[in-house]
Structure formats: C-alpha cells, structure tokens
Amino acid sequence: MTREERKAGTFGAAGGNLRPVSAGRLDVGISDEIRSRIVSLNYPPGLMIFENAVAAEFGVSRTPVHQAFMRLSHEGLLDVLPQRGARVSFLSRSTIIHAQYVRECLEAAAFFDAARIWDAADAAHLQRERRAQDLIEAQREAVARGDYLRFTELDVAFHTEILGVLGNDLLLACVSQMRNQLNRLRLLELREAHHEKRMIADHEALLAAVSAGRADEARRRLITHLKTLEDFREEIFGRHPDLFRP
C-alpha cells in the first residue's frame, strides 16, 4: 500500500467480508460489498479507495477489483480517476431529481401492466405473491432490528419481485440504474424521517392491488409510495449539504 493510500483512507479500513458469490465472479462479490459500504455511507462521498488496498483486503488479484470498480462507476457510485484510484461519488441533486422522475414514469406504467396481466390462478404468480409477502415480513424484522440498510435492500427486492412478472429484463435494468442514484438518499430518509412503517403499509396495499388485478389503483398507489421520498428530498438536501453537489 502506498503512502497516498494510507493517508487518504482506503477500502481496507472497514474490514468487510465478501458476500457469497459463484465461482469466477469475485468481481460481483467485491462490488456488492463496496456498494453496501457506499449506500450505508460508511464510505462517504469523496473518500478515495484503491485497487491495491481492496485486492489485499480480499486476497485477490487486481483484475476482479478493477472490474468491480468499473461496475460501480457505471452505476454512478464511484468516480474512477486514471492512475489515482477511485473516489466515492458525491450525490448530485439534479441527478436525484431526474432519477426520481424517470423511476416514477417507469414503475407507474409497469405496476399498472403487472396488475393487468396478473393471474391469481397461475401457480407461478401465486409463488411470486408469496415471495413478496415474505419480503414484507422480512422488512418488519429489519425495522425491529433497526437495520435500515437491510430494509432498503428488501425494498428493492419487493419492487423487483412485482416487476419481474412482466419478464422485461431491460425494464429491470433501467429501474435499477435509477435506484442506484437514490439509495443513499433513501437510507438517509429512513434514518431521519422513519417512514418505514408507512412504506411497509404501502407495500401491502400495492401487493393487494396488483394481485387483485386493480391496475389503476396499483399505478396510483405506486406514485403515492414513491412521492414519500420526493417530499422529504429538499429537507435532506438542507440537512446534509456536504454530501451533495448541484
């Protein structure tokens, strides 16, 4: 590790562990771990991290680390600086506003269509409904533990479960890209506004509307659900000016 790496504060400082990954996909496990540290703000905006330090922490070569950095750069979470390492990206106020708009447009239409095609007699749809119910219950458990990062991950999983009925991988990729711009803001909102019980109630109502085929209601409830974060957005911007850029 170079003197610059020790001085800046690096990935290795938090001492994380790789999440289970399939053989040959170490880059996925590394990117998942770094993403969690960034979203939880354990790695705050502006922190420099370095391939050598990450490789040493996980006992791997620099190749999967470089691949992980590229993935997180594509997600807007890291700024890769040639010959200098990578910097945790600052949150952009304008990008957040635009991402919220795009996500709402995509998911409102998608939840409408999911409800329209949902077949309560279809075994696959019933299994999907049970998985969504399990995710809601897991969110309750995360709230009881005060685990807001896990709550956020389960929120993503719930929405993905419903959207998955459409079988549209491009839609899922686009929505995921928008969420990547919003997850840190969402975590701040949960920690400070404590809207988690309202979010769980929203998820229950959304699942009920979709599984009953009430498409207009599903779209309306989805928009209201996403507005929760939008309504608290400016307050978060004001409370944490050091985390945001224009």
UniProtKB/TrEMBL annotation:
Pfam families: FCD, GntR. GO terms for molecular function: DNA binding; DNA-binding transcription factor activity. Keywords: DNA-binding, Transcription, Transcription regulation. Residues 24-91 form the HTH gntR-type domain. PANTHER family: GNTR FAMILY REGULATORY PROTEIN (PTHR43537:SF45), TRANSCRIPTIONAL REGULATOR, GNTR FAMILY (PTHR43537). This is GntR family transcriptional regulator. It comes from Cereibacter azotoformans. The lineage of its organism: Bacteria, Pseudomonadati, Pseudomonadota, Alphaproteobacteria, Rhodobacterales.
